[in-house]
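Deliverable D2.4 — example input (structure tokens):
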């Protein structure tokens, strides 16, 4: 009997029964952003590269500007003498009514050091003091005549000395002989003997040796004996410690106040440097001792962005809360003196003159870069028009679509922006990070918002098909007309403001946008007008043999209605390049002109008297010297009435006329200075002022420096002449002058690449000669790093604008590339050859490029001509150096117009040819497939 099967537990399947299937897990959709980046990695990489480069430039601009501005401020302070930039705090000697012990204690090292520390704390911020180069002490302000006969007496007058007790003498000087001075245990106003040291220059000029004793007269006491124990060499002779009070370092040969003229009596004044502990002995002399605290500004802590605060701090120290704080810290009778405020004011003038010009370049380049970012978003929108239209048709909302596109763009743009910002901060450390961050954030925001906003505007309405977008189907709306008229009004207002007020710091932000607004107006006019002549040319071209010319003109006349951005970028780039190139060329020309007016030729050798006989031959053999003109100069020629003097230059008419023509300084015919008959007045070339003074009808007589006289008559009038700088001059034939006045005193040299060192050696063999080289004079005008920085920033801005313009052109061509490729594919099925296809693309792209280039050239030229009256290049070209040029005007630079024009045409033709070649290699099958994404 078989047993019954065991009961099964609930849920356990029977043996042999099929196992139930596991439930199916629905697939997880891939994230949108990752899918898009994988689908188009090249586009994402190109966008990231564009954002990284643009962010790097936007962040580097304010960093570089800060760097150049800070370096310019420090250079301005360095170039000014320390006696001008130092803050000198001076207090009179202690009250004579005090007990002698209290008076002596008041000038001792302890109280002086304590007041020094409190004075440092009282200096208002942001002005910082360089403590290592500052000092304090007691000194006499009046020289004390010493009777020692062994001291030199050039005019028989006794030498004078000043006594000083500078703190830190051992740390700022090296011993050349002897030792540092020491002080007795207790020094008072009646101490009989003290020790002192002198500098090398003082020892050399006054013939002082170690061990010498100098007897300084006292007041109501016997003379003070000062024994010299050491000779010092300053470690930093031109530093604030020594140069703020030059007499402590270098003795002075001083004229006696009661005598005057070149033969005035003179006497030596030198300084004896005592130990700080010996300061009380100065109270027993008649040298009017004063206490001083010499504060040197910390040049490394100076920042141009804090210039207003620095000027306020200096003004407060001179007469304000800072002065009250210093007086409470030192002495109620303290006087603070400095010329640091003048140095800051001069630098502020330089910065205010350069700043608006840099703003013009930055605005133009920033506009072109912004247009490139917007065009990149527009290109992405056009390439994905079918995809985005499908999403809208399937129910995607505009905000949701914009968020997706923004997230997709941000994934590529944000890391690239961080990389570009880091590169700028690493390359240019030390500047303010806030403007750099602001520039980087603005670029990133534009890059991330361009695609979403452009897509939202293009797909705000769900359409079943893609409409035409050329100028035939899309007519300008009233809003567009109003916007264009507004741009025209703004441009006219900016130009008028710049012409009236000039490119000054207070002219407003509208002035810096004037070139861009002019370019915008030109772009709007081109978009409106340039299809008209092309359509007119297409009709006669249709009667020509072949369809290529007619088809290319017809397609070029049906330009896309969205061509404003490319034309705006090209116009802004042309305008910025023309304006910037004209600024740079104007700066270079102004410096060349100033150097030429100063020298009169490429080089100049001049002496106070007649030149040595062998000097012209030695100079002529210097490498680079092509020609030499000898001139005799008499600067003190006096007219017959004895009123004033007139410089007279005696020249060889033929050689000097050639020099004047070559340099462009008052060219004249060589025979104009020839005397036509013996005994007649000598013909002369005069400046307008001299010609007006003496007239041109009657002769006049001049007495020359050698005592001879000459009768002249003005026959030629010129504003400039190479031999003499200034508004007054006469030029005559040297052979007709008396023998003493005809000897050459100057040589004017011309040539390319004159060897300066060799010329120095040739001219240096003669005593009393001075040498001026045109290249050196030109370099002298570049005084501040702010000048060179402004030029470099301008050049970089122009180059960046040109680069972005090329990118704009390429983006414009890429935007139309799919349509052109499809057109070529269809035409090839109709028999169009590859050569005809290349000609078609080149001819189609050439008219817009030609018109844009011509419009850009006209816009750039017009911008320079319109804005030139309000732009003065003198500040950026010459800074504070005196020059005879006057106001430097802005002129159009032809190269700044020709080079961008050629670049646009070359890039356009090259890109069209490359596209035609590439389309021919790929074939036409893919382009003819219906529904393929292009």
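Example output (designed residues):
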């Amino acid at each position: 009997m078989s047993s019954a099967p065991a009961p099964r537990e609930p849920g356990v399947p029977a043996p042999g029964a099929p196992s139930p299937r596991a439930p199916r897990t629905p697939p997880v959709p891939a994230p949108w952003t990752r899918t898009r980046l994988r689908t188009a990695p090249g586009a994402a990489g190109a966008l990231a590269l564009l954002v990284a480069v643009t962010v790097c430039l936007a962040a580097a601009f304010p960093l570089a500007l800060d760097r150049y501005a800070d370096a310019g401020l420090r250079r301005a302070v360095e170039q000014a003498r320390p006696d001008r930039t130092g803050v000198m705090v001076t207090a009179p000697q202690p009250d004579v009514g005090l007990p002698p012990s209290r008076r002596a204690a008041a000038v001792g090292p302890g109280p002086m050091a304590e007041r020094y520390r409190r004075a440092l704390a009282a200096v208002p911020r942001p002005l910082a003091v360089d403590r290592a180069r500052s000092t304090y002490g007691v000194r006499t302000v009046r020289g004390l005549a010493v009777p020692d006969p062994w001291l030199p007496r050039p005019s028989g007058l006794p030498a004078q000395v000043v006594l000083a007790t500078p703190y830190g003498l051992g740390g700022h000087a090296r011993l050349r002989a002897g030792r540092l001075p020491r002080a007795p245990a207790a020094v008072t106003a009646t101490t009989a003997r003290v020790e002192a040291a002198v500098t090398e220059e003082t020892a050399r000029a006054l013939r002082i040796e170690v061990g010498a004793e100098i007897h300084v007269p006292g007041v109501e006491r016997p003379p003070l004996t000062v024994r010299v124990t050491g000779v010092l060499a300053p470690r930093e002779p031109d530093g604030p410690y020594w140069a703020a009070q030059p007499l402590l370092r270098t003795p002075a040969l001083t004229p006696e106040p009661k005598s005057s003229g070149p033969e005035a009596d003179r006497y030596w004044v030198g300084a004896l440097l005592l130990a700080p502990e010996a300061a009380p002995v100065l109270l027993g002399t008649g040298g009017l001792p004063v206490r001083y605290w010499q504060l040197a500004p910390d040049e490394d802590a100076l920042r141009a962005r804090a210039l207003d605060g620095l000027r306020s701090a200096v003004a407060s120290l001179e007469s304000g809360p800072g002065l009250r704080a210093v007086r409470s810290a030192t002495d109620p009778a303290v006087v603070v003196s400095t010329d640091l405020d003048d140095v800051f004011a001069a630098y502020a003038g330089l910065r205010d003159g350069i700043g608006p010009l840099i703003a013009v370049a930055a605005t133009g380049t920033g506009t072109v870069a912004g247009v490139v970012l917007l065009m990149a978003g527009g290109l992405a929108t056009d390439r994905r028009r079918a995809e985005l239209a499908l999403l809208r048709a399937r129910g995607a909302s505009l905000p949701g679509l914009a968020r997706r596109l923004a997230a997709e763009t941000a994934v590529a743009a944000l890391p690239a922006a961080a990389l570009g910002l880091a590169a700028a901060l690493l390359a240019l450390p030390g500047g303010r990070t806030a403007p750099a961050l602001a520039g980087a954030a603005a670029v990133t925001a534009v890059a991330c918002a361009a695609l979403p906003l452009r897509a939202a505007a293009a797909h705000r309405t769900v359409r079943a098909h893609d409409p035409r977008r050329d100028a035939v189907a899309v007519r300008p709306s009233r809003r567009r007309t109003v916007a264009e008229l507004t741009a025209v009004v703004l441009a006219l207002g900016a130009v008028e403001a710049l012409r009236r007020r000039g490119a000054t710091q207070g002219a407003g932000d509208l002035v810096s946008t004037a070139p861009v607004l002019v370019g915008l107006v030109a772009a709007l006019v081109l978009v409106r007008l340039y299809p008209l002549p092309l359509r007119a040319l297409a009709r006669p071209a249709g009667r020509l043999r072949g369809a290529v010319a007619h088809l290319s003109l017809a397609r070029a006349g049906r330009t896309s209605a969205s061509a404003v951005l490319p034309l705006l970028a090209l116009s802004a780039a042309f305008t910025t390049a023309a304006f910037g190139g004209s600024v740079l060329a104007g700066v270079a020309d102004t410096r060349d002109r100033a150097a030429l007016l100063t020298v009169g030729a490429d080089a100049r050798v001049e002496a106070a008297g007649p030149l040595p006989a062998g000097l012209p031959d030695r100079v002529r053999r210097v490498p680079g010297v092509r020609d030499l003109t000898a001139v005799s100069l008499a600067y003190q020629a006096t007219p017959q009435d004895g009123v004033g003097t007139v410089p007279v230059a005696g020249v060889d008419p033929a050689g000097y006329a050639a020099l004047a023509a070559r340099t462009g300084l008052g060219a004249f015919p060589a025979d104009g200075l020839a005397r036509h008959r013996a005994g007649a007045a000598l013909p002369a070339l005069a400046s307008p002022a001299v010609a007006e003074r003496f007239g041109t009808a009657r002769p006049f007589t001049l007495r020359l420096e050698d005592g001879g006289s000459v009768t002249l008559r003005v026959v030629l009038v010129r504003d400039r002449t190479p031999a003499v700088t200034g508004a007054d001059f006469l030029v005559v034939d040297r052979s007709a002058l008396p023998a003493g006045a005809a000897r050459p005193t100057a040589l004017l040299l011309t040539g390319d690449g004159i060897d300066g060192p060799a010329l120095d050696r040739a001219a240096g063999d003669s005593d009393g000669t001075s040498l001026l080289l045109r290249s050196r004079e030109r370099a002298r005008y570049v005084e501040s790093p702010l000048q060179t920085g402004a030029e470099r920033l301008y050049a970089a801005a122009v180059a960046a604008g040109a680069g972005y313009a090329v990118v704009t052109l390429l983006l414009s061509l890429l935007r139309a590339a799919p349509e052109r490729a499809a057109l070529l594919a269809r035409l090839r099925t109709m028999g169009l050859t590859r050569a005809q296809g290349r000609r078609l693309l080149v001819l189609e792209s050439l008219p817009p490029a030609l018109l844009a280039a011509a419009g850009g050239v006209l816009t750039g030229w017009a911008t320079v001509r319109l804005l030139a009256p309000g732009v003065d290049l003198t500040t950026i070209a010459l800074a504070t150096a005196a020059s005879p040029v006057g106001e430097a005007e802005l002129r159009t630079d032809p190269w700044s117009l020709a080079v961008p024009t050629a670049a646009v045409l070359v890039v356009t033709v090259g890109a069209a040819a490359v596209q035609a070649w590439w389309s021919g290699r790929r074939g036409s099958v893919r382009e003819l497939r219906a529904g393929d994404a292009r």
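Confidence is low (pLDDT under 50) at residues 930-934.
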